[in-house]
Structure formats: structure tokens, C-alpha cells
Specification:
about 110 residues, mainly alpha, cAMP-dependent Protein Kinase, Chain A, two-stranded antiparallel sheet, 5 helices, about 45% helix, Dpy-30 motif containing protein
Length: about 110
């Protein structure tokens, strides 16, 4: 019988070590962003496997973004996620706009 801590390995049906997740917070953002930028600056990114490429370039900031979506639970999570990633991106030259500023606003009509 397997221990309660053992988990099934994906697709194999075998018990493996328990999966753990590292909790990333806003205090970890500079470290995650720095690691992402350092890894992305490598000239040989095209030679990496897909998994290694994503781990080095995307997953740190994406994990923070998904945690923020879970914490705030916005009405449109996909737009919120996109806005978060654009605000945290160091590779773009866009003007920072808050998510609330991107929501559609009702314009009053001047009915006389």
C-alpha cells in the first residue's frame, strides 16, 4: 500500500514523490524577473527543449501572474492576466496602465 504522501506519476499509474509547488509572491518578483531576463538573454535559446525554454523564460512571471489572478478573482481573468503580464514585462516599451483603466466605462448621454 502506498503512503498518503505518494502521488501518481502522470499517465504511468505508478506512485512517485509528492509534487510540490514553490509559492511565489510579489517580493519574489524581482528575483523571478531577473532570472527570466538572464535566461532569455542567452543566445542559444533555440537549441533548448521546449520544457527548459519555458522554465527559463516564462514560468517564473507566469506563476506570479496566475497567483495574482487567484488572489483578486477579477470578472475577466484572461484580460487581467494579459494586463498583468504586460505590466510586468521588461521587454516591451508600452505605457503602464492599470487593469481598472482598461475596463469599459459607461458614457452618460446628454438627453435634453
Amino acid at each position: 500500500m502506498s503512503s498518503p504522501a505518494a502521488t501518481l506519476t502522470a499517465g504511468s499509474g505508478e506512485a512517485g514523490p509528492p509534487l510540490t509547488a514553490t509559492t511565489l509572491t510579489d517580493s519574489n518578483l524581482p528575483r523571478a524577473a531577473a532570472a527570466t531576463n538572464a535566461a532569455a538573454s542567452d543566445n542559444d535559446l533555440s537549441t533548448l527543449s521546449t520544457q527548459v525554454y519555458l522554465e527559463r523564460t516564462v514560468l517564473g512571471v507566469l506563476a506570479l501572474a496566475l497567483e495574482d489572478v487567484c488572489r483578486t478573482r477579477p470578472p475577466n481573468p484572461v484580460d487581467y492576466l494579459g494586463s498583468y503580464l504586460l505590466r510586468r514585462s521588461t521587454a516591451n516599451n508600452t505605457v503602464e496602465v492599470t487593469y481598472e483603466d482598461t475596463l469599459p466605462k459607461v458614457v452618460p448621454t446628454n438627453a435634453e
